[in-house]
Amino acid sequence: MAAHYQIAGTTAAEISASVESGVRTNALPAGTLLPAVRALATELGVSPGTVAKAYQVLRQRGVVETAGRNGTRVRPEPPVGGRRADLRLPAPPGALDLSVGGPDQRLLPPLGPHLAKLAAETGEPTGYERGGVLPELVDAARDRLTADGVPADAVTVTGGASDGIERLLVSNLSPGDAVAVEDPGWANLMDLVAALGLRIVPMPVDDDGPTPTGLRAALAAGARAVIVTSRAHNPTGAAVTADRAARLREVLAGHPDVLLIEDDHAAELSVEPLHPLAAATANWAFVRSASKPYGPDLRLAILAGDEATVARVAGRLRVGAGWVSTVLQRLTLTLWRDPRVADRIDRARDGYAGRVTALRTALTERGLTAYGRTGINVWVPVPDETRTVAGLRDAGYVVAPGALFRLGSAPGIRITVSPLTAADIVPLADAVARAAAPATPTTLSA
């Protein structure tokens, strides 16, 4: 291993992120031999199992390869950043896949009629000199955000929530800076933070969102940015309540220079009202995606914030991609203006809420704890993720293991309700209860 680079961390996630950082900066070039598991564990003061887990994650991401006695080396062409979600196993034939985390395709509004309308109305092709954010979309977005209590003086458009969050982090932080991330939390966000060379600080979450104690601890640990899911938290379905928002604001008031990012990815699909933290710090942004309600292929998000923060994002976009396609912007505006689409979104919201409530009730009746106040996921704490996931696969159900979403929080599984019908609820709850039950000790008879 390169003598000048020191692998750091006390958890598997931190250790793997540290190695990835070395690979990205070429401090650990292709072919570099990493320390043996026990040697690195001793050096870092952690268990060998922690280092072994970190190396396992790196192998699964394609960053390193292990060749028996030849040790673990950086791969010849390692990816800059892997995806934790790629650890999810494919669904076997005939199984009901409840692991993807996407919306129900049956509930999405059809785009064809609106695209046809746009085709008939669109005039001259848009050139470089005319590209940019459509004023009419910004006006409509301001009305929608203001109605939810989000200040919307400065607004821009990004290519989805992830794109907006990435631009916020890149334009405000430097590699090595700490970012407070919900634990458990959105797997892709953890990948993104690691891929940017930033340091993850776990922030515990309960049913009402990030805990004030957890936020306070993350800020004390040096977090330069805090990312909060407003509602429909992935994977737990948590939603920030009015009381929790007030308490979080009190904590943030003592850290005015911290970048606050709110992710309202579910938007109109949430049955819980929005209680934003917007403007709790001097540097803030509120990101609302169109993907969950209107379709994952609609890669567009509205980003509001303080003037300087929004200007930085708009500037980064201008010198890179330039702008989000005006075709997508016009399509989004058309969907917003169609009352039939609004009715369809309302039905989808109620449909998801009904499935979540039914599944939580069925699981509770079987002695299990289940979370999911809003959104499309139910989070079920289990004593053994591997055994539970395997047992459910044997029963014909594929769920996401909690390890994809956890840093230091307790084990669990995530069940996406999108594919479920009313007839699926009871059989699924029975299967979860069986799979999550403690293993029966093996006894020997004379």
Describe the structure.
The structure is a single chain. This protein is of the alpha/beta class and 446 residues long. The strands form four sheets. The chain has an eight-stranded mixed sheet, with helices on both faces. A three-stranded antiparallel sheet has the order 12-15-14, with helices on one face. About 2% of the residues have low confidence. The protein is built from 15 helices and 15 strands. It is globular, with a radius of gyration of 23 Å. A hairpin with a 2-residue loop joins β6 and β7. 40% of the residues lie in helices and 15% in strands.
How many beta-strand elements? 15
The portion of residues assigned to helices is 25-40%
Give the structural class.
alpha/beta
Main beta sheet, described? 8 strands, mixed
- Structural shape: globular
**Strand-and-helix sequence, N→C?**
HHHEEEHHEHEHEEHEHEEHEHHHEHEEEH
Number of helices: 15
What is the arithmetic mean of pLDDT?
Answer: 91
Give the strand content. 15-25%
Point out poorly predicted stretches: 80-88
Adjacency order of strands in the biggest sheet = 4-11-10-9-8-5-6-7
Measured between the Cα atoms of the first and last residue, the distance is: 55 Å
Radius of gyration: 23 Å
